[in-house]
Description:
With 168 residues, the protein is of the alpha/beta class. The chain has helices at 33-36, 40-46, 58-61, 64-73, 99-113, 127-138, 152-167; strands at 2-8, 12-13, 81-86, 89-97, 119-125, 139-145. Strand 3 (81-86) and strand 4 form a beta hairpin.
Amino acid sequence: MLKQIPVPIDSLFLDPNNPRFISDLSERVTHKDSQIEKQQSEILKKFVRSAGPNNPDEDVTNIRSLYESMVRMGYVAVDRIVVRSIAGFPDKYLVLEGNRRIAAVKTILTDYEAALPPLGFGAGEDRDSVTEKLASFNTIPAMQLEVDGYSQKEIDQRVAVILGIRHH
């Protein structure tokens, strides 16, 4: 069952088990909920904004176009992200579907706070323009997958169905 909820951006955590990060199925490692919070900066680094020879997964982890679009338009929730609660962390959510979008939002906010010029400046965008869109980045509408009472295998199956429908 999915239900719509608003989630503050600081309560959204990128998924270390994101299928985009798997290049060899025989080496798949599953990260536990208790490890997710401390892995966030490393996970965010996996999403890039530039092409490069040192990034073989660039096509599946590149957030440049999302970043540029969001700098121009703000966060537009055409497709809802899908989240689940994180065991042991009340009001924290793991992004199951929409990791690239949330990585783009988090990167824009980091760049904004550090006063770095986001991509897109020079294309008619300036800091004031981004300031006007900040509210769209602070709370993200999400669909929450209910996981209470389900085994890990059942949860994994539900997530696989959602990802399968979304990506095919």
